[in-house]
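Session log. Operator J.P. requested a structure for one protein chain; no other inputs attached. Running the standard single-chain path with token output.
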Amino acid sequence: MTTTDLIVIGAGPGGYRTAEYAAKQGLKVVIFEGADVGGTCLNVGCIPTKTYVHSATFAEARERMAQVVGQLRQGVEGILSHPNITLVREKGTFVDAHTVGEYTAPNIIIATGSETKWLPIKGSDDSRVVDSTGLLNLETLPKRLAIIGAGVIGMEFASVFNRFGSEVIVIEYLKECLPALDSDIAKRLRKTLEKCGIIFKMKTAVENIADIDADVILMATGRKPRVQADFANAGIEYDERKGIQTDENYETNVKGVYAIGDVNGKQMLAHAAEMQAVRAVNHIIGKQDAIDFSIMPAAIFTEPEAACVGPTEDQLKEQGIAYECKKSFWRANGKALAMNETEGMLKLFVNSDGLILGCHAYGAHSSDIVQEVSVLMCKHTTIAELADMVHIHPTLSEILKNAVD
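Structure written below.
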């Protein structure tokens, strides 16, 4: 048995960020990964899909995906070659609370990520049904693509394959797409995609796959934490659906054992996993930080893209929070007009003191604008202070400035 300072299970965004950060703090780290380093995000998730988003044709997308993923995977391999890091190329399995495989450590961080959440629909074993990984592995462009689910995965693939030339239909049980996005923004985005030829069937439940007329059917009904039976060997409390329970430092019920990223089910985003990694390592080494996990921006890379940070308008109403909504439009922005990207709208929510509560938007580069809002929220900036900040002209960032001028 070999003793080390920290064991990490999983080399996705949360895992390799944990190893990198901990190693720089002087800890000796052993990280387990039974598949390719980089996890779902790099290999079959956000990076491949964004490569598709920025490719003109299906053939180009497949070629570029292999190149981009390969290059980034080499980068992660480089990170994990740090002298304080030992990469064990096998699945990490708990022997007891502080032993994984042949290694033991006082602290262990679980970063096993998530997996496709399959709905128990009749006929779901049909060969036409794939998850996002299966769709990315297609070698030929489907003539007709049906997508079950209008969440982030479903909407991004709908936009991409529509542009590639597939006939796309999206089937969603809820009344609107993208439930995490402000309903007004989500509706406007859906209507924009409908103009591009995507068919949406909202408030529709799929009862039998055989009823769907399509060459390929994407199951885009979300993801669930990837938990392992051997967690019980360590006495870790977890739920098959909700994941591993943790406190604010991402420590589980077992002292010295942490769970970060999708496996804890809190905020299933790659950048959330990376920051949770920092918090967990900081707790281990006794270092304070000021990370505010209540301010978590997110983006949907449709065409045009959408992004959000903070509550929706509906949530503010439900919670009885007093607010004012300030709006701004892409069509009134000089850069957007010059780019021929005039479709878009921004909603900024502020309280009676002028503090920003949140921002939801769709339109070209809306993720960049919402990221600026996220920074302002972290610094407790008022809209009066924002109004006094110079923004370059002509840029899309003026859309945010115009909302408060």
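Operator note: DSSP finds 13 helices and 23 strands in the chain.
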